[in-house]
Fold this sequence. Notes:
mainly alpha, 2 domains, globular
Amino acid sequence: xxxxxxxxxxxxxxxxxxxxxxxxxxxxxxxxxxxxxxxxxxxxxxxxxxxxxxxxxxxxxxxxxxxxxxxxxxxxxxxxxxxxxxxxxxxxxxxxxxxxxxxxxxxxxxxxxxxxxxxxxxxxxxxxxxxxxxxxxxxxxxxxxxxxxxxxxxxxxxxxxxxxxxxxxxxxxxxxxxxxxx
Length: 182
């Protein structure tokens, strides 16, 4: 908001202060497996809709998954599928974190990226305050040409991180400034 001289919007500090907020993982967290049979079935149904048709083998595993016997195995494969465009497993890096109201975050559990994206867009349409940077991350605002809309890619993470650094450089002293002041 501060980067745009023509923007006259203000951060709603009242909503921030009175609301409940979570640090949200943009990419699904592999070790937060849905717990109940109903949550597992719902999670599979949501994920299935975003698995590309060219990946019929995985889609069929999701469709035919017995949530009592082999959910964990299929869950791991689906998470791996949606994370194929990422390097490393550092899900707690700032390039994979954003701020989201706790109701939205906990409402979609550990959904895959495109389900989170769709939910955030819908919540904003309904009037839920979504912090600008969070919305921009899920809209892939930081990537020049985001061809993989159903995936949070390594390029998306790097661009998001670089934007955070670029914005903060204006407000935080650099290490060079700190050395000069000593």
